[in-house]
Amino acid sequence: MSAHADSEHASDYQDAHDEASSRHGSFKDYLIGFALAAVLTAIPFWIVIYDVFRNPRVGAVVILIFAFVQIVVHMVYFLHMNSKSEGGWTVLALIFTSILVVITLTGSLWVMDHLDSNMMTMTPGQMRSMP
Amino acid sequence: MTAHTETLHPGTARSGPTTIEREARKEAPVFYDTDEHGHAEGSTMLGFWLYLMSDSLIFAVLFATYGVLSRRYAAGPSPADLFELPLIALNTALLLFSSITYGVAMLEVEKRRMGLTLFWLGVTGLFGLGFLGIELYEFHHLIEEGAGPWRSGFLSAFFALVGTHGLHVTFGIIWLVTLMFQLPMHGFIPDNHRRLMCLGMFWHFLDVIWIGVFTFVYLMGVLLA
To answer: Could A63 and B110 be called an inter-chain contact, meaning their C-beta atoms sit closer than 8 Å?
Structure first.
């Protein structure tokens, strides 16, 4: 292998290395992400196990907010999401998917709940006599 | 082929560029390709990201199904009767630890240290196995208590959602073990680097899905039951 090829190879390697490390984040990033994730996991478990909120609906909303924040933390610190990676296509795909997920979830729950409240509730007796 | 062309047009083939051609060449714009070249890793990463996004649609549908059926107990057990939150907390911790050890393994990959990379990948795999073990214990326990997926709509949806996640973790571990053989065999070649990056995204993605599972299924199930 010639000296020229060697140096070319080395610079390729360096390029790949630089780009890769920018995509990996540092040990500090992982530690921050881990600490945040641990706290954001511990608080919801504490809320539910010790029944912190008297009203379970309030508790449910609070732990959903915690889950959402933790998902963002994972995306940023572990999956290294930023608006620049792959020329913005990853973020675009993520936004599109999030919209679909929200439509699927809220749509299903809303429609089925509506259906439920408009149906007559069946007594166990009626249920037994069903064909 | 060239010989054939030469016999047909001996003049054009032999003579140099004409004056017009030379002029055109002088004025031709010069392009500088500032984009990256022959770097297949980039497009693979985007493709794998799109796969993960489509996978999250599968999970969205399963979450929606669970949301609709989560109160259909059919006079059977409810989440408050079944779920043991300390066990779920342990499971969550194992998956979170495995995420950070995978991150540490990737940092060792950047430093090209084979031994430490394999060590941290192994630790990640063990955490993953611990997670799967606890989940299988939980499933076994539920089925023994007569709370199998056939018991009620709630339990069908529960097993479908949590089981699909567990299946993903299983395939993640198989992939991890495969890479732990391929790494020492071929070294830190670009192919292995790409594979490790993809598995890393997959593994962190599974942790993200698990946030949804423990919040939406276990915590809210116990809270609202």
So the answer is: no
